[in-house]
Predict the structure.
Amino acid sequence: MLNIVIFGAPGSGKGTQSVKLSEKYGLEHVSTGDMLRAEIEANTEFGQKADSYISKGHLIPDEVMIEKLDDLMRKKNGVKGFIFDGFPRTLAQGKALDEMLEKYDEKVSVVLSLEVEEEELVNRILKRGEISGRSDDNRETVESRLNVYRNQTEPLKSFYNERFKLVRIPGQGSIDDIFDSISTVIDRIIA
Ligand code: ATP
Ligand code: MG
């Protein structure tokens, strides 16, 4: 299996690139953000709880997210591989992902880190907020999301770098140019 973690700050383009990757390489796109927004949309009890964290720019607690990811993976038997988008977001989630994949005798193949300057991230998120209707795409929440990213998520870069899995991808420029850089990396892995 080819198991890709797409990594980056909020607004770095993980979702956009994941969709293209899943189409080109026939991989299963697992987006925790999309899953949570579907729950919010359906107004489930879990969705309401989740939105109380999301709208503040906080993370949903690890135990809850790890269990949700386990559920998502168990439903997808016999796939060629996964693209993990939005997970892991903490070191605990990173360790849990390794353990979950181990159960299937699998591992993370590569971590693609989309590198985007902070000013650009803020601009993208505020622009997306004008149309997305997302409770977290606004000026008040964006600072908190970036803080959470720096403090809780970014340490995963060393975690994966030490394991020789991290590949940095320049995340500014056209969507297609960024996707070309990603494709070059993936083609080298599957060759
Ligand atoms: P993108 O790069 O696609 O713009 P994003 O950071 O804007 O990514 P999502 O990945 O969609 O957004 O996540 C939105 C929110 O959902 C997060 O800010 C967080 O509150 C919650 N969330 C998503 N994934 C997780 C996770 N693995 N653990 C905890 N909370 C999560
Ligand atoms: Mg996203």
Observations:
- The longest strand covers residues 2-8.
